[in-house]
Design brief:
The complex is a heterodimer of chains A (269) and B (230). With 269 residues, chain A is of the alpha/beta class. Chain A has helices at 17-30, 47-50, 61-65, 71-74, 100-111, 127-133, 147-162, 177-181, 188-195, 207-215, 226-238, 253-268; strands at residues 4-9, 35-39, 76-77, 84-87, 116-120, 138-143, 169-175, 198-204. Chain A has a single domain (4-268), classed as P-loop containing nucleotide triphosphate hydrolases (Rossmann fold). Chain A has an 8-stranded mixed β-sheet, with helices on both faces. Helices cover 17% and strands 35% of the residues of chain B. With 230 residues, chain B is of the alpha/beta class. Classes of the chains: A alpha/beta (269), B alpha/beta (230).
């Protein structure tokens, strides 16, 4: 068994990388996967807060890299899920404390004992981002349906392709169906057309996410919020299940007709 | 250990230009590493272009140089070479290619200066991929893109620009002053379109159904006409 290393990144800050990492970690662990979430945002760590594990940290990633502890000692086990761990970032250092080779080495050491390593990348396209992407087998790009976020996502997708880590897959976070319906927000198809990459999830705007982040209990723990369901759908897709994307607007007559035509065509093949 | 090497480093308006000497790539990289180590404080926080001469390099070799420079906090932004393979690898890595030795001085800006410069005898550069935001393709001859050019990308050509796809970024054809240069695209909707000294923006409202168009300078203004002509 060897873990899949998935790096979650975005370019623009504040689009929800850490929320996505925490919730995918929870959703995968609830499905019986052994998961380590790794906070690669040295100096601005947040993942521990979102997971409610801040007060359990003894050692961090920089301690591991600089040899002050063994890797196992730095892993913080989740208080609710047996198979969910956090490798926290150092808060008192900066991004130069870790190199890309260090991230690769740490991930290689963890690969044998886990199913998924989720790396939460810092915003930006500098060294911290490069470090987070270096060990990745797959990259998820988080964006909001806003022009500026999409533009930054495009830049990052180009860099990922250049690193030979592509094709990256896309998570559209904080979609407001009401605004899309009114034509005031980019809709899913517009974002995908702009970026020309595959989608792995759409997470609707959901107030419970903010409450959850503040209380250290990610929404994915309960299945009854729209965002929680969306994260579980992404986890299922990561595990190879075919989960249809929930329609965010009613398909028009022509769209239904074309879908029907396509389905007919596929059956005949 | 031999202290001398034939690496030349000079300052330009766009940052450092590091010219590697002749000889095997690995040896030059080692020599560069020693230079960086000796002058770590001098290099820290700078940006640099790397002149590799006629060497054909692949992506991983350029990446190797970029990562070496990054370790000393030098940001590699461009690679200068006369080898096509190197230029292509540079473009694929999302770095800027600089062609030929004439740009070496760097302090006048590689292109778009001086109208009296005659168009250089340069061939075409074919790029077969999506050009994304932040990526810049610069070439003294024709540039042909088979793929889309996203908003935030820049294409600068000494002569024509042809995009077999959507053109949403900034494009400058005839950047050396050639007013006869044209820009063609299947969906011509650039953020900004320049030909020689002329500048135009796309109309605000997007067409529902894009048609192939060609933009050119006509009576002192840039105009776009559908292709083929009716």
């Amino acid at each position: 068994m060897s873990a899949r290393v998935v790096t979650i990144t975005s370019g623009k800050g504040g689009v929800g990388k850490t929320t996505v990492t925490a919730n995918l970690g929870v959703a995968l662990a609830m499905r019986g996967q052994r998961v380590v979430t790794i906070d690669a945002d040295i100096g601005l760590r947040n993942l521990d807060v979102m997971l409610g594990l801040e007060n359990r940290i003894v050692y961090d990633l920089v301690d591991v890299v600089e040899g002050r502890c063994r890797l196992r000692q730095a892993l913080v086990r989740d208080k609710r899920l047996q198979e969910l761990y956090l490798l926290p970032a150092a808060q008192t250092r900066d991004k130069s404390a870790v190199r890309a080779e260090d991230m690769v080495r740490v991930c290689d050491e963890l690969r044998e004992s886990f199913d998924f390593l989720l790396v939460d990348s810092p915003a930006g396209i500098e060294q911290g981002f490069r470090n987070a992407v270096a060990p990745a087998d797959e990259v998820f790009i988080v964006t909001n349906p806003e022009v500026a976020a999409v533009r930054d996502a495009d830049r990052v997708i180009g860099l990922i392709e250049a690193e030979g880590k592509g094709p990256a897959r896309l998570i559209i976070n904080r979609l407001k169906p009401e605004l899309v319906r009114r034509g005031d927000m980019l809709d899913t198809s517009a974002v995908i057309e702009l970026l020309a990459i595959d989608l792995i999830g759409i997470v609707p705007e959901d107030e419970t996410v903010i409450v959850a982040a503040n209380t250290g209990r990610p929404v994915a723990f309960t299945d009854n919020s729209p965002a929680g369901r969306a994260f579980h759908n992404i986890a299922r897709r990561m595990l190879g299940e075919e989960v249809p994307f929930a329609p965010l607007k009613e398909p028009g007559f022509l769209e239904r007709f074309f879908r029907w035509m396509r389905a007919e065509g596929e059956e005949q093949r | 250990m031999r202290e001398r090497d034939d690496i030349a480093i000079k300052g330009t308006r766009q940052g450092l230009l590091i010219a590697l000497g002749e000889g095997p790539w690995e040896a030059q990289v080692d020599a560069l590493a020693r230079r960086l180590e000796k002058g770590a404080a001098f290099f820290r926080g700078g940006r640099a272009a790397l002149d590799v001469g006629p060497r054909p390099l692949n992506e991983s070799q350029i990446r190797q140089a970029r990562d070496l420079l990054a370790r000393y906090e030098v940001d590699l932004w461009a690679v200068q070479s006369t080898a096509d393979a190197t230029i292509l690898a540079t473009v694929r890595l999302g770095l800027s290619p600089i062609l030929g030795p004439e740009a070496a001085a760097g302090d006048t800006g590689p292109l778009r200066e001086g109208k009296e410069t005659p168009a250089p005898p340069a061939g075409g550069l074919v790029v077969e991929r999506t050009v994304r935001s932040g990526q810049r393709i610069e070439h003294p001859g024709d540039v042909i893109i088979i793929g889309d050019v996203h908003a935030g990308a820049e294409i600068i050509a000494g002569r024509h620009v042809i995009v077999w796809g959507k053109l949403h970024g900034v494009v400058h054809a005839g950047a050396l002053g050639d007013e006869r240069a044209v820009v063609c695209a299947l969906d011509l909707a650039p953020t900004q379109l320049r030909i020689a000294d002329h500048i135009a923006r796309s109309p605000e409202e997007r067409r529902r159904r894009p048609v192939p168009e060609m933009a050119r300078v006509h009576k002192g203004r840039i105009e776009a006409v559908p292709w083929p002509h009716r």
